[in-house]
Amino acid sequence: MNETIIQTHGLLKTFKQANAVDRVDITIKKGEIYGFLGPNGAGKTTTIRMLLGLMKPSGGSIQVFNKDLKNHKIDILRKVGSLVESPSYYEHLSGKENLETLRKLLQVPKERIDHVLSVVRLTKDAHRLVKEYSLGMKQRLGIASALLGDPELLILDEPTNGLDPSGIHEMRELIKSMPETYGITVMISSHLLSEIDQMATQVGIISKGRMIYQDSIEKLRSKARPHIRLRVGNGAVAKSKLLKSGYVVESDDDYIYMEDGRDEYISELVATLVNQRIPVYRIEEQRQSLEDIFLDLTREGSGSHAAHSAS
Ligand SMILES: Nc1ncnc2c1ncn2[C@@H]1O[C@H](COP(=O)(O)OP(=O)(O)OP(=O)(O)O)[C@@H](O)[C@H]1O
């Protein structure tokens, strides 16, 4: 499971002196579903286009399957399936006929068509014209096309864009099955963490061209621990008194924050504050959603309290 599938070092793309992708190091291991996240304009599509050899980097290096993309492009891309932006089809042909035109180009065995249609659950609709397909069916046909060449790596750029919740759910189930059932490593981009939560095993978050977080989704989740917030008479004084008494707290204006929310801990803390004649006005539990953490990380000057206390 430890084999590296994608490794970039200092990947850079400059448009008119602005860095759209700013020295990004991406590591994707075999069997992972790597969620590549970032707000609109963060640099996801530009990065993906470079990974697929569709755009030349301004600097840095790209290794795929431990080979340099610059020197082994054909070899590498033969083992990569991709879906970048909305795929275009011959609308007057059936889903199966569309796959057949692609199959001839790729020169893969005919049996692959029925196989990929069944993987994306389009067997029943294989003979319907693509112009009659829903957006979700078209996206699934896009995945079928990406799978036709029997890839080891699938790179999907916002495949859930424009899909309704049930379409997103179907896409998620489909992608989740890729590593285990078919041995395929997946990189999938999105601007919404909620869309790739529950399927990604690893997350890379990019903001303004820079990678600001890259680790397991589990670690990101652990940042979403609840914390307790107390409004007190004077946060700074309260903090110094509490620290002297051995408590681990943070303060900000008239607020005291702490991560340990056990009942006995809170009651002792309040008693300590009251004994020190510091008024306690309010006690509340705050819970950050994954989306909050994502927003905090990507927000300008991500040193806001929530990001700080969750780290
Ligand atoms: N061909 C280009 N010429 C000039 N600037 C470009 C070009 N392509 C992208 N950019 C700029 O690079 C930055 C990153 O764009 P990119 O499309 O990679 O972001 P993204 O994260 O994929 O966003 P979205 O989710 O909106 O697709 C943006 O500021 C964009 O305007």
Mind explaining what this structure looks like?
A hairpin with a 2-residue loop joins strand 1 and strand 2. The protein is 36% helix and 27% strand. The protein is α/β, with parallel strands linked by helices and 311 residues long. The protein contains 12 helices and 15 strands. A 6-stranded mixed sheet has the order 7-8-9-4-10-11, sandwiched between helices. It has 2 domains: 218 residues, P-loop containing nucleotide triphosphate hydrolases (Rossmann fold, 3-Layer(aba) Sandwich); 61 residues, 2-Layer Sandwich (Alpha-Beta Plaits). The protein is elongated and about 80 Å long. The site of adenosine-5'-triphosphate (ATP) has 11 residues, from helix 1.
List the helices and strands and how they pair.
Elements (H helix, E strand, L loop, with lengths): L3 E12 L2 E7 L2 E3 L3 E5 L6 H8 L7 E6 L2 E2 L4 H5 L2 E5 L10 H12 L4 H9 L15 H13 L5 E5 L7 H18 L2 E6 L2 H4 L5 E6 L2 E7 H6 L4 E6 L2 H10 L5 E3 L2 E4 L4 H13 L4 E7 L3 H9 L6 H6 L1
Helix pairs in contact: 3-4, 4-5, 5-6
The protein binds adenosine-5'-triphosphate.
Pfam families: ABC_tran
InterPro entries: AAA+_ATPase, ABC_transporter-like_ATP-bd, ABC_transporter-like_CS, P-loop_NTPase
Keywords: ATP-binding, Nucleotide-binding, Transport
